[in-house]
Structure formats: structure tokens, C-alpha cells
Amino acid sequence: MKKILSYAIALVPILLLISLLLLVPIVFFISLVPNNYLPVSPIWIIEGLIGILILGYGVRLNKLPINLKPKIVYWAVFILLIIITGTLFLCFKNLLIIFVFCQLFLPIIYILWFENKFEGVKRYIKKSRNTFCFFNLFDSSFIGLYFLLKFIVQTWGKNIENFLDKLNVPQDFIEPIVTVLLLIILFILIPFFRGYLAVRKYRKENNIFTSSGKIYWNSNLKSFLSSILSICLYSSTLLQSDTYNFITKLVVCLISMSFTVFFWAYVLEDIDRGGENKEVVKSNWLLFGLLSTFLVLLDQIESDLIDILTWFLPMLLPVLIGEVNNIIPGGHSKSPTPDMKKHLYWLQIMSFNTLFVFNIVSSISTKQLIKDNQIEKVNTFKVFFISLINKGSSSNFTLGILVSAAILLISMVIAYGLSRIMVYLIRRFYIETSNRYFN
């Protein structure tokens, strides 16, 4: 019974989404026909089509080489659905529309479980059953907590305001603090615990232990980012105006829950491999941190940074990379190979050309403006693209970094083509046409 309950909690959102996707085309085509041309109510046409679908798959199920017990259960549930539908029609007509979506759960479950084409899906669900159960319970608690807090604010809102007034704390002081705390809780703490506990739950469920030299930083990060996305989906639904009623918000949140099945498929790849190599992950995270710092500096002090790099980077590369063999632990020195010399040559010419192209673009698009009796340098090219992208909902700081990264990427592409042309001309003049310079 516990196993059946965990499957129910884990699969209800995704089953609801699949049912909705199957029913939307049917409802759409029925809506194209005027009601006076329909022999019966549209709801009964939908019920009839669902009944034919369930009956048709039941016939196929009887032909499958599986145990008799699942077949008996299928037909028993089918009969039960007919009885419930009739009861709802006679006594609770308003609930019949909601129940329509649940009727398709029966064939969908059997198709996923007994059709060989979906063996991979079945294996994925079995491995992640408890994890999906945790996700849905966690998200349900989050949604329930929202409605509880909303009820408390609506009921005791005046008392809360009176209490704050007695504290004699200015409102313009309280609001920023409350806003920052809510953002930290919503988009840092809740996603962190949701993602971390899900990874831990999955590893425990599938007996995946941490091997020597392996870590799960990337898996936790992916789970954290997917949790942020889920929280954003729930928040965008729950924080809508009261034009949407409780049932509508609840159904949309259930559909949003189903997306976890797709997000989690991306996360568990690294977990199933037993984690990631510790040294590789540390190197990648450090490289990402350095790259992020470089992009921030490039956005804030563009001209000064480019001047520094233009002077020092082409000269420092032969020392930083070309002589790294001199600091090998144990005193064992290695001599550079021809591939290393070629790699170093390309790094030097690419770095020089990238900085050269970027500097030209920056110089052409930078203008000096007088603002508050001070001369400021403004990159009009960057300002134009930020204004083009920004619709008032994004941070100019973030957009500035993204635009700087895009300009740098374009400069690298141009620099690559320029480097190829330069190498071709230099090689043709100094090597291929004469032996005066190289033996």
C-alpha cells in the first residue's frame, strides 16, 4: 500500500499534464461545432471518446503476454470509473469536468508500464519514484504555506499593521528588509534545500555512494538551478491577481509540478555515473569564477582593462604557460613538445588579435559626455543593445555583462579569422616561398 501511495504522489502531476495534452485537441475540435448541431452535451461526447479509448486499449491489453491480475484490475477500474461518472452526473455535476482529466490516468499508467516502447520511461520512474514523491510533497507544502500565509495576512492584516505602527519603525526601512529576506528565502534557501535533499534522496534510494575522488557539486548545482526554475513557475502563478480562482491556480501549479520529471532527467546523469572527478570540477568552477570576474571587470572598467591586457597578455603567455614545466613537483622537468609550441603560438596571436579587434570596437563606439561637470566615457554600442534588450524587467548590470560577453565573443570570432589569414600569409612568405629564414 505504501508503494502504491508513493507512486500516486509521484505521478499525479505528470499524468495530469499528459491527460491535458490528450484532451485539448478533442475539446478544441468539439468547440468548433455549434452546440445546436451536437446531438448531446459536449461533456458526454468527451466521455464517450474517453470510454472508447479506454475500451480499445483494454482489448489490446488482453492480447499482451502479461499476468492475468493486471488485466482484471484494469477492467475492474474501468467499471468503477463508469459508476463514479454516473454518480457525479446525478449528484455532483460540477465535479464531472475535473474527473474527466483523471479518467485517462488508467490507460496512460498501463501504457507506460506494460508497453515495451516505454521501457526506458518505466525504468526512469522506478529509479526516481521516491525522489519525485519528495519533490511533489515539498512543492505541495510550499504551495500550501503560501495559501496559509495569504489567509493569515487577509484575516489579521490590520493587527499586523497596528503592531508595526507601535514599533515606530519607518515603512521605508521595513519594506526593503522584508523584500530582501523574501528573495533570499524564495530563490536561495528553499531551492538549496529542495535541490540538495533531492540529490541525497536519490542517492540513498539507489544505493549510490561517494567514491574516492568523486563529488556531487555539479549535480547539486543543477538540482539547485532546476529548483529555482520550479519556484519561479509556482511564484508566477501564485502571485497573480485574484482574477484567477483557487482551483485554477491549483491546477496550474500541479501542471508546473510535472515539469520536475523533465528537469530531473538532466540532473541524474552525473549522479548515475557515480559523481564527478573532484579535481576536474574544482578546476571548472575556478575557471568559471575567473571568467565571471573578468566579464564583470570588462563591463565596469573596459578601457583600462583592455589597455592592461593589450600590453601584458601577449608577453606573459609564454611565461605563464610556456614555462609551467619548471614548477613540476619533485624536481622532474619536462621539455615542451612541438604541439605545445604550436599551441602557445596560437594563444599569443589569438589573444593579440582578440584584444586588437575588441579595442577597435570599443574605441569606435565610445564617446565622451559631460555629466554633472564631469567627463564620462560611454560605450554607445553597449548602451544601444542594453536599451534594445531591456524592457524594464531586467538589471542593467546583468545586461551590461551579457552584452560585454557578446562583444568579446564576436571579437574572438573575427580574431580567429584574422589569425588564420595572418598565419597563412606569414607561413607563405617566410616558409613556403624561401628557405632564407628557416632551414
From TrEMBL:
Could you list this entry's UniProt keywords, alphabetically sorted.
Membrane, Transmembrane, Transmembrane helix
From what superkingdom does this record's organism come? Bacteria
Where does the signal peptide begin and end? none
Transmembrane stretches, start-end = 7-30, 42-60, 72-90, 96-113, 134-153, 173-199, 220-240, 246-268, 280-298, 304-324, 344-364, 397-418
Which protein, by its recorded name, is this? Uncharacterized protein
Q: Which organism is it from?
A: Streptococcus australis
